[in-house]
Design brief:
Blueprint lengths: L1 H17 L8 E2 L4 E2 H12 L3 H13 L18 H11 L1 H15 L6
Antiparallel strand pairs: 1-2
Helix pairs in contact: 2-4, 3-5
């Protein structure tokens, strides 16, 4: 198991170090943001108020997710936070899409990046 864990850590570290935000294939939203920045911005907006947090939890429960999850925010101080944020956002991608498509009507233009 330790060998598998070590390989996973090396793969993750390599992917993070080799990530090039200037590469056009790593950019979204009309080439305005790199993928990591876009996911980080969405995670912040989901957690911007108690109402948004509760709404995101409700969307997860309505989607059949029993254990409500939170998207951890990336920190430049701690290793692995970008990977954790991206992994959780990928797991919650359907709920995030629901949030983005409906939150502006409820809370104003919060999903505009």
């Amino acid at each position: 198991m330790s060998t598998i864990t070590h390989i996973a850590n090396v793969e993750t570290s390599t992917a993070i170090w080799e990530f090039d935000p200037t590469d056009s294939s790593n950019r979204v939203l009309g080439n305005s943001l790199d993928v990591v920045a876009a996911v980080c911005t969405i995670a912040i907006k989901i957690q911007c108020s108690g109402q948004c947090i509760e709404y995101f939890k409700t969307l997860q429960q309505n989607s059949g997710i029993d254990k409500v999850l939170k998207i951890p925010l990336h920190s430049n101080v701690r290793w692995g936070t970008a990977d954790g944020m991206l992994s959780r956002a990928y797991a919650l991608r359907h709920t995030i899409n629901l949030f983005i498509s409906t939150a502006d009507k409820l809370f104003g233009p919060i999903t505009i990046i």
